[in-house]
Amino acid sequence: MSGHLLRHKAPITDDVWNLLDEEARSRLTPALAARKLVDVSPPQGWEHSATNLGRVEPLANPPADGIEARRRRVLPLVELRAPFALSRAELEDAERGAEDVDLDPLADAALRVALAENAAVFHGWQEAGIKGIAEACTHEGIRLSDDFGAYARHVAEAVETLLRAGIGGPYGLALGPDGYTGVSQTSEYGGYPLFDHLKKILAGGPIVWSPGVNGAVVISLRGGDFLFEVGQDLSIGYQDHDDDEVNLYIEESFSFRVAEPEAACALVSGSA
Known about the structure:
With 272 residues, this protein is of the alpha/beta class. The protein has helices at 14-31, 88-95, 104-123, 133-136, 151-164, 177-184, 194-201, and strands at 39-40, 50-59, 69-76, 78-87, 142-143, 171-175, 207-209, 216-220, 226-230, 235-241, 245-258, 264-268. Strands 1, 4, 9, 10 and 11 form a 5-stranded mixed beta sheet that branches. Helix 1 (14-31) packs parallel to helix 3 and helix 5 (151-164) runs parallel beside helix 7 (194-201). The chain is flat and about 60 Å long. 35% of the residues are buried.
């Protein structure tokens, strides 16, 4: 665990830290949609600051005559932090073995940071130099119908678009929360679940609940197209405390880049 998180300064025992870490993990796992669909590097550590792009750019006016100068291009990592506060009384009850400790603020922070990560990966973050999958893809977006029963046609069209571009599968489908709920509750003619039909169209790939995604995105899972580099993986850190509350945060650092823009197709909601 990175020392800059200052966990040793918090009035929290090791057992309660384990409880908080497990709660964060259980909340983050279903919500980190992007990580289920793109290539994710092993954590490089908090000190890792930039992703090597393998490219250079020329520099004018080198410091001596007869010299050619180039600068290596890198993509700086960005840091996300979601603060939250827990009651010291609740934490003390956790030390006593309480099973119903109020950790809702932690759960809320976990969802916020997961939503931010997903939004950056799928829709981009201009200030951070991140171009998202949906905005990077070169195919014309497919307009989603308000009728969830038509989603099979839309997803099939997206898969065919990728196939025509020579992009193999299997494929994954990132669905925003409203779309995921609608698809899960819809049956086609004869009572066949739409969810199962979509998985067949995707060649067995996953349908992922994706908070932070507008509409939907079909993505090739062949690998090497979408690259998420982790510096420090999501971790809980300590800020400060008073007699009533302990102020904590969930923090991460990462970069994201699209290597092959043709490997995804955006499905755009009618309201977009």
